[in-house]
Request: fold
Amino acid sequence: TLDLIREVKFDSIFAFAYSDRSSAPASRFPDQVDESEKRKRLNALLSFQEKITEKRNQAEVGQVLEVRVEGLCAKIREGLGQSCRQMTGRTESNKIVHFASDTIQIGDLTPIKIEKAYPHSLWGTPEGG
Reply:
């Protein structure tokens, strides 16, 4: 799996530790992996992917991306957009983008200039705003 992620360089992944089901044929295989090893492997996988995701997000800084506005930010970022509400939305490629605006509405498709990149999201400013 690490080799695949290294080669493909996904934007992000959803990965979980294998959960054995007694009805599945794999439950009867010998040499099962213990829970601590599963956690160790999953953490290594997620850590590796996080570095790729942050690097790919860094490549978006300076770009203008079309963002479909989904709602208000659940987590307010200090020092960014304190004078107005912080919004969140997604790009066509499903990247999460946060920005500050009192005029943009939920459901709008709006151009956002990306200013900062984080491991799981981007921060930007609405174009013309």
Remarks:
- The chain has a mean pLDDT of 88.
- The CA atoms of residues 61 and 126 lie 14 Å apart.
